[in-house]
Write a structure and sequence with these properties.
With 332 residues, the chain is of the alpha/beta class. The protein has 14 helices and eight strands. The chain is globular and about 60 Å long.
Length: 332
């Protein structure tokens, strides 16, 4: 019998949810995703210090000697995300997801500008748009930004997605892919109800993604569904057959070491038909979000958490820049 990971890979695109290049080498995923927290974690690994220095040096050269340290660090933040993305693309055949600054999540125009800047950096190194997904938070402003970007052939991954209405708005906007957060939904319900656990079939995150998947397939939406943010392998196996699943190295390892039969649970050719069609404008979207305490709280929490990770990464980049330009040896 094959491992769960091998069986899963035969029915679902397995994506590595990490900025750790060694983990990507180990598991050979087709795609990979990053976010500010993952980039921050990867930046702590001594082996990747050269990538940080490369981002800072490139940014200084780009802006010139007279540019302020603050300007260089802000430029280096974008550069670093792309530098990691380019390294990841050397190891995978598919796409890497690179995230727009979460602090721009409620600013459509700024999100569009940042996404164009990120994709231009990839293009400058000969990487085509079809190998990059721009990650944007699933706020109404973010979804509207993605709608514009998709028309420019800039493919988007709408992240921090916690409910059905966010998903529908993304599909109507024509985004390439959505990332519903399974484990964070479970976290909220466990805290709200006091329950220690849920059976996989009743897991609120699993139930949410299952409904989204079946709705998309029933209505002919092309938007891909990529389950994300898993807490255990049972959540993952219950979504076998989903378009994509992005999985942390720890859970990839567990799947690789577990041997049992894995039946398909979601089938794009034979979805559970959901006979309803929903159209959302900004007013109805915001009304639906206001009525969903879990989605509202988790979206705000996610944006806040990613923003804090960016703040921390900027501080580290500033400290590193001072070391480099102060002539101190380039060691941690």
């Amino acid at each position: 019998m094959e491992s769960l990971l091998n069986q899963l890979s035969s029915m679902t695109v397995v994506v590595a949810d990490t900025g750790d290049l060694e983990a990507i080498r180990k598991f050979h995923p087709r795609d990979a995703t990053t976010n500010p927290s993952l980039i921050l974690a990867a930046a702590q690994i001594p082996a990747y210090q050269s990538l940080i220095d490369q981002a800072l040096t490139t940014s200084r050269e780009m802006l010139g000697a007279s540019a302020s340290s603050t300007s260089v660090v802000k430029e280096a933040l974008d550069e670093l995300c792309v530098v990691f993305g380019k390294e990841i693309l050397k190891l995978i055949p598919g796409r890497v997801s690179t995230e727009v600054d979460a602090r721009l999540s409620y600013d459509t125009d700024a999100t569009i500008a940042k996404a164009r800047k990120i994709i231009a950096k990839y293009n400058q190194d000969g990487i085509s748009n079809d190998r990059v997904l721009i990650k944007i938070a699933s706020t109404w402003e973010g979804i509207k930004a993605a709608e514009v970007l998709e028309k420019e052939n800039i493919n988007c991954n709408l992240t921090l997605l916690f409910n059905f209405y966010q998903a529908v708005a993304c599909a109507e906007a024509g985004v390439t892919l959505i990332s519903p957060f399974v484990g964070r939904i479970l976290d909220w319900y466990k805290s709200a109800t006091g329950r220690d656990s849920y059976p996989a079939t009743e897991d609120p995150g699993v139930v949410s993604v299952t409904k989204i998947f079946n709705y998309f397939k029933s209505n002919g939406y092309k938007t891909e569904v990529m389950g994300a943010s898993f807490r255990n392998i049972e959540e993952i196996t219950e979504l076998a057959g989903c378009d994509l699943l992005t999985i942390s190295p720890k859970l990839l390892q567990q799947l690789n070491e577990t041997y049992s039969e894995l039946p398909i649970k979601l089938n794009a050719q034979k979805p559970l038909v959901i006979e309803e069609t929903i159209h959302l404008d900004q007013t109805s979207f915001e009304l639906m979000m206001a009525g969903d305490k879990m989605a509202t709280e988790k979206l705000d929490e996610g944006i806040s958490g990613f923003s804090k990770a960016i703040d921390k990464l900027e501080n580290q980049l500033n400290e590193r820049l001072e070391l480099i330009e102060g002539g101190i040896a380039l060691t941690l």
